[in-house]
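Hi F.,

I've been meaning to write this up properly since the lab meeting, where we talked about keeping a consistent format for the predictions we share between groups. The idea is simple: the sequence comes first, exactly as it goes in, then the structure tokens exactly as they come out, then a line or two of notes. No screenshots and no reformatting. I'm using this chain as the first example so we have something concrete to point to.
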Amino acid sequence: MSKLVLKDCYIEVDGVDFSDHVSSVEVNMTKDEIDTTNFGGSGRERAHGLKDDSFVLNFQQDFDPASVDATLYPLWDQEQEFTVRVRPRAGAVSATNPQYTGTCILLEYQPLNGSVGELSETSVTFPAQRQGITRATS
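Output, unedited:
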């Protein structure tokens, strides 16, 4: 059984490829837990609730035009929806390289973070809207 070592993830935010500026990625797919327990049973019952999916990306900050800050700050400031796409490998979408896509918003942005002599990095959470994160294999 093969294992996946993340070496060349594909990360796209609002049409910009940030694969060379992201050091960690999380694709979080969750649903609210709805308690449906009643007097007819002897234990808890639950149902799936609404999706609450998100992407968490750790960016290596860059203030060059068309890079990290130039893309993220306007998304936060203008409060617009945008698309995030993530694949485990940079290659084409396939059954062995699925693409996770979500229409997202940016609610919190920390443009500068770090101590003297350290790489400036910023962790950003992108909550997915409505249908949540979808998975495609073709």
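Notes:
Residues 88 and 97 are 6 Å apart (CA to CA).
The chain has one domain: 10-136.

If this format works for you, I'll send the rest the same way.

G.
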